[in-house]
Amino acid sequence: MIIETKKTLANVLSHFRDATIGFVPTMGALHQGHLSLMQRCRENSIRVASIFVNPTQFNNKNDFENYPQSFDTDVEMLTSAGCDFIFAPSVEEMYAEEDNRVIYFGQLDKVMEGQYRPGHFNGVAQIICKLFDIVNPNKAYFGEKDFQQVAIIRHLVSKMNYQTEIVSCPIVREADGLAMSSRNILLTPQQRQSASIISRALFAAKEKTGTMPLAELKRWVIEQIDNTAEMKTEYFEIVDRNTLEAAVEYKKDSLQGCIAAYAGKVRLIDNIRL
């Protein structure tokens, strides 16, 4: 069932408050990574997904306007995966009034994605608050490819006192290791081939962790990316998994390597536990 207004969705879900409600927020252009979230969501009695390209989390207007969309295919995929209700509002429906809320995340949104995409996480927080206020899910599912976003949302849920469990799900990868992303369809064949260096470099870094200083390991990963045709690293950081603070020395089972890189003009992110 496709629902386009907040009022209708709230009314429909009001009949299921004795059941468990699972929620998968998406921006559409779905792939197997999204479907893996819906598969996990099937542990709930009622499964809800949203398809909404949220303008407030894009600091680049062209990126927003060029974001891939495939609504009919998305609906078919979600329905086949067991989704009961698909919330597909318009921008006007979600932002009938301008949202000027600024949410403080401490240092979580000052590094990596927050540094290179100012305002991005505040936009994410705005739309998550709007969606959670309507759906009020027992559990919400997010992919670990957006590692920093998951940390931000966990903080948001605690700060805003939402009674929602945040379930993070493993990265789903293509056969050559590239993390599945809606943006992958924007890659040319050459860029698509080159982009696989991202995951190869990360997996190699995992094997090297603990055998060399972290600063040297960071340089090595960046060199692997930048020496590949059409590839350019925006950042590669090794951070504490919980605080996202830059790590200066190796600590077993506490580090995450997070990367953003361009294949041509297409921006891709990935991460790995080191």
Give a description of the structure:
This protein has 274 residues and is α/β, with parallel strands linked by helices. It has two domains: 2-169, Rossmann fold (3-Layer(aba) Sandwich); 182-273, 2-Layer Sandwich (Pantoate--beta-alanine Ligase, Chain: A,domain 2), CATH 3.30.1300.10. It is 38% helix and 20% strand. The protein contains eleven helices and nine strands. It has helices spanning 6-13, 32-41, 61-65, 71-80, 91-94, 113-116, 120-135, 147-160, 189-195, 197-208, 214-226, and strands spanning 2-3, 21-26, 46-51, 85-87, 139-143, 165-169, 231-240, 255-263, 266-273. It has a six-stranded parallel beta sheet, with helices on both faces. Strands 7-8-9 form a three-stranded antiparallel beta sheet, covered by helices on one side. A hairpin with a 2-residue loop joins strand 8 and strand 9. Helix 10 (197-208) runs antiparallel to helix 11. The longest helix is centred in the middle third of the chain and has 16 residues, at 120-135. It is globular. It starts with a strand and ends with a strand. The model has no long low-confidence stretch (mean pLDDT 96).
